[in-house]
Amino acid sequence: NAGVTQTPKFRVLKTGQSMTLLCAQDMNHEYMYWYRQDPGMGLRLIHYSVGEGTTAKGEVPDGYNVSRLKKQNFLLGLESAAPSQTSVYFCASSPSGGDIQYFGAGTRLSVL
Amino acid sequence: GENVEQHPSTLSVQEGDSAVIKCTYSDSASNYFPWYKQELGKRPQLIIDIRSNVGEKKDQRIAVTLNKTAKHFSLHITETQPEDSAVYFCAASTGGFKTIFGAGTRLFVKA
Q1: Do A97 and B95 touch (CB under 8 A)?
Q2: Contact call for A33 and B97, based on CB within 8 A
């Protein structure tokens, strides 16, 4: 039982480059989330999805885009990476809102 | 906007002592309060949660209390062990997509 899987685990980008982070869950959860974690700031919601084909902005959406074409996958894209996007990114899923969230192992991204 | 304040940011205790972490939330519509533990370099994992219709919940050495009137909730760890060393996050949810996390408490348990 894999739970929530994120790829890649680590990535280094140059300013202006683009990349996509992939999140996959095998628990048939409706809700999926992308967070970023910065020192001393906890987890901040970037974008979320309440079901296949739906996405919405969270607290810090600028510079990111997402897609959820399949229920089990939630993709996070950076079109033009900036040093301010250096962070650890966590994907999570939950069966519904206001419920336990299951997190992936995280992606450590550095933008130079 | 809504926020969750968590204190202290760092807590150091001797093995066997108790540890208490406190959180305050601002959105009175919050009705679900999970606590997550994150070991160094690992993913956050739920350790205990409480819903607004309950004042206290206990699971072995871990307990959570909720005071809805004061909008406070706390995590209590008794008989701390070195493996309890980690960062602990409180959170508050109104039941929809929005879960607001506290900034975290780094707990050190000294052997």
Answers
A1: yes
A2: yes
* A19-29 tens-digit pLDDT: 999 999 999 99
Nearest CB to B43; choose among A44, A97, A103: A103
**pLDDT tens track for A42-81:** 899 999 999 999 999 999 999 999 999 999 999 999 999 9
In this complex, do B103 and A40 lie within 8 Å of one another by their Cβ atoms?
yes
The three-state (H, E, C) secondary structure of chain A, written as one string: CCCEEEECCEEEECCCCCEEEEEEECCCCCEEEEEEECCCCCEEEEEEECCCCCCEECCCCCCCEEECCCCCEEEEEECCCCHHHCEEEEEEEECCCCCCCEECCCEEEEEC
